[in-house]
């Protein structure tokens, strides 16, 4: 009888784990704009060796951005955004996370930092769940000088005393998945100097190029418009961190 109970319990665990893996692995395909950005341009080369990196040509950047993808979103969905950042002369990378869930590898950014000792200033960021992971990484790594949160907020109060951290929280007013009020109320979890950027008409899914997301509200601005505002806010922070 005990063996039967244990066997049934094992089968249940296997089914639950298998179901979770299937759920986490089910993602939207990349939009054509994302696929095109992964090919790079005449200004930026794109390589993929454990993480996706965007390196500007003809310039040696001293400041870099590392992005964590949102939950159940393929990293390449943020390629247009990071490509735009690199075209401004900054290094940029997107990390992979186990099962497309950033909290399974909060320290993913460390591999990028270790691979590029020539970069003097680092900014980490992320979309949704990826932003939570980025905030946790910044909390335990004082070498990080900047934090970008997109439709996200910190999980705890570990950053409010970081006077040396430049942070920006970017959110869409039409977001149907990340609670806008909670994002606005997260000011006490961030350094006092943190900037909050509201994208009027923007939603959750348009922070990347992976199509519509279930449960989200329709945006009242185009994806390109939302992306341009996000990139502008990120570049502004990178300029400050780099001292430009």
Secondary structure blueprint with pairings:
Blueprint: H1 2-25, H2 32-37, E1 44-48, E2 51-56, E3 63-68, H3 79-86, E4 91-95, H4 109-115, E5 121-127, H5 129-140, E6 144-150, E7 166-172, H6 180-184, E8 195-199, H7 223-242
Parallel strand pairs: 3-4, 3-5, 5-6, 6-7, 7-8
Antiparallel strand pairs: 1-2, 2-4
Helix pairs in contact: 3-7
What does the model show?
- This protein is α/β, with parallel strands linked by helices and 244 residues long.
- The chain has one domain: Rossmann fold (3-Layer(aba) Sandwich).
- It contains seven helices and eight strands.
- An eight-stranded mixed beta sheet has the order 1-2-4-3-5-6-7-8, with helices on both faces.
- Helix 3 links the parallel strand 3 and strand 4.
- About 5% of the residues have low confidence.
**Radius of gyration from the alpha-carbon trace, in angstroms:** 19 Å
> If strands are numbered along the chain, what order do they take across the biggest sheet?
1-2-4-3-5-6-7-8
In CATH, the architecture is 3-Layer(aba) Sandwich
CATH C-level category: Alpha Beta
Overall 3D geometry?
Answer: globular
CATH superfamily: Alpha/Beta hydrolase fold, catalytic domain
Spans where pLDDT lies below 50 across 5 or more residues: 13-23
CATH topology: Rossmann fold
Q: Based on DSSP secondary structure assignment, what is the total number of beta strands?
A: 8
Tell me the count of domains. 1
Instruction: Tell me the series of helices and strands, N- to C-terminal.
Output: HHEEEHEHEHEEHEH
The class by helix and strand makeup works out as alpha/beta
User: What is the number of helices?
Assistant: 7
Task: Tell me the major beta sheet.
Answer: 8 strands, mixed
Fraction of residues in helices? 25-40%
- Beta fraction of the residues? 15-25%
């Amino acid at each position: 009888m005990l063996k039967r109970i244990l066997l049934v319990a094992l089968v249940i665990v296997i089914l639950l784990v298998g179901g979770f893996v299937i759920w986490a692995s089910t993602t939207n395909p990349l939009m054509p704009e994302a696929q095109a950005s992964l090919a790079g341009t005449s200004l930026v080369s794109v390589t993929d060796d454990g993480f996706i990196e965007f390196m500007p040509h003809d310039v040696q950047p001293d400041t870099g951005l590392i992005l964590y993808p949102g939950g159940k979103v393929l990293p390449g969905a943020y390629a247009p955004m990071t490509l735009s950042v690199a075209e401004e002369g900054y290094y940029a990378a997107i990390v992979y996370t186990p099962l497309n869930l950033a909290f399974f590898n909060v320290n993913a950014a460390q591999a990028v930092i270790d691979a590029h000792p020539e970069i003097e200033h680092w900014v980490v960021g992320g979309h949704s769940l990826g932003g939570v992971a980025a905030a946790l990484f910044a909390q335990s790594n004082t070498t990080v000088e900047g934090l970008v949160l997109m439709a996200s907020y910190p999980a705890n109060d570990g950053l409010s005393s970081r006077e040396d951290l430049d942070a920006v929280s970017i959110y869409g007013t039409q977001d149907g998945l990340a609670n806008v009020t909670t994002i606005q109320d997260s000011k006490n979890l961030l350094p006092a100097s943190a900037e909050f950027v509201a994208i009027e008409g923007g939603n959750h899914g348009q922070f990347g190029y992976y199509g519509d997301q279930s449960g989200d509200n329709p945006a009242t601005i185009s994806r390109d418009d939302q992306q341009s505002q996000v990139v502008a806010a990120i570049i502004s922070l990178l300029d400050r961190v780099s001292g430009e």
